[in-house]
Input
Amino acid sequence: MPDLSDYKGQTPAWCMGCGNFGILNAFKKAVSELGLEPHRFTIVSGIGQAGKFPHYLKCNTFNGLHGRTLPVATGIRLANHDMVVAAVAGDGDCYGEGGNHFIHAMRRNINVKLFVHDNQIYGLTKGQASPTSMEGMVTKNQPFGVFSEQLNPVALAVALDCSFAARGFAGDMEHLKGLIKEALNHKGFTLIDILQPCVTFNKINTYEWYRQRVYHIEPEYNPEDRAGAFKKALEWGDRIPIGIIYKNHRPVLEDRIPVIADKPLVRQLFDSSKLKNTLEEFY
Ligand SMILES: Cc1ncc(C[n+]2csc(CCOP(=O)(O)OP(=O)(O)O)c2C)c(N)n1
Ligand code: SF4
Output
């Protein structure tokens, strides 16, 4: 049974007090409590403060291009669906640059676990507005305030029939740990949009700002009722719900592709004679 020290990677270079620490600790506790050994999972990220997440863990990792986290995670999962594959991204990385991948990963229902560190700002590049920045927010790049309407990723996920859509808060580690465990146990694409205070560049959505608004979704709430979930996902203002907002049990992509449904690609024998025939057909 692994313990927390088994997942320890490099020392984080995040600012003191950054919400990313809460996410890292919640993740390590979740995998440790599930008994998931480091060699059994892969963490994929792009670029950004959230993109550094895999460096701070000991496991299989892939740190790729900004916005391209989900295609890489999809490829890894399709090649080896015995491996738990988690994708970690910032709100800019996932909902901005990678927005189209976000949409199609949910439609395909690839069994990848997506954790978005949503600090409502571009952290690594020093505070430009991201798709989840609130309308009117003034930044160095948006001196007249953000003109675009704020993206609601959880409502978008419900609209796209995402298999599991949740919202967590980096300042409520126990609750976040529970959500991460539920996501890892769910069969299907999972999104956890994690409210993550950026103490350096987002002076609006602070720990205090979130604490005054977030509340745990009521135990009697039914996350399998899609119309109710859409209504719950749209709540954003004086009250912000955290917990599982929507889930369903759709078939996953790797089970629907006949050549890999029974056995992952990495466990299949390479038959060069088939390649030879194909090459001869085309050349
Ligand atoms: C294709 C591309 N565009 C832009 C950049 C510059 N860039 C690096 S990190 C970053 C912002 C990261 O913000 P976010 O994804 O929200 O993550 P955070 O740092 O807040 O965790 C940008 C724009 C890049 N590296 N590659
Ligand atoms: S700039 Fe913001 S997101 Fe980046 S490490 Fe500092 S507090 Fe965290």
The two ends are 53 Å apart (CA to CA). Residues 14-15, 18, 20, 49, 119, 123, 198-201 surround iron/sulfur cluster (ligand 2) (CB under 6 Å).
